[in-house]
Design a protein that fits this description.
mainly alpha, single chain, two-stranded antiparallel ribbon, about 40% helix
Length: about 110
């Protein structure tokens, strides 16, 4: 059975409403973990590099809260629009490539 994101089991929900330490997840029985939002933001920025086009645009199909944080950090244009993509700033393009290489590439 597929789990819908709006049921509250996604990472975005875990960041918004963390359970107190020691409480077990009612569905899977796993312990609650503290999420590092900066690491989530770095991973998403790195993944934006995958669909980056020549004009600096990338698909914005990631967690809305994380996309808003990337906008606040100056890496992307405002994600709140009808467009299905966001524009990466020059700093965002450079940082996304650095993160992509650091997180996903094998050492040379």
């Amino acid at each position: 059975m597929a789990v819908r994101h709006d049921e509250g089991y996604g990472i975005g929900r875990a960041c918004e409403n963390p359970r107190p330490a020691g409480i077990r997840h009612e569905r899977w029985g796993i312990a609650t973990m503290e999420i590092d939002k900066d690491k989530i933001d770095d991973a998403i920025l790195a993944l934006l590099f995958l669909s980056l086009d020549r004009d600096g645009r990338s698909w914005k199909s990631f967690d809305w809260n994380a996309m808003n944080r990337l906008h606040e950090k100056g890496f992307i244009s405002n994600p709140i629009s009808k467009a299905k993509s966001v524009l990466l700033t020059d700093e965002g393009i450079e940082r996304s490539e650095q993160l992509f290489r650091a997180i996903f590439c094998k050492p040379e």
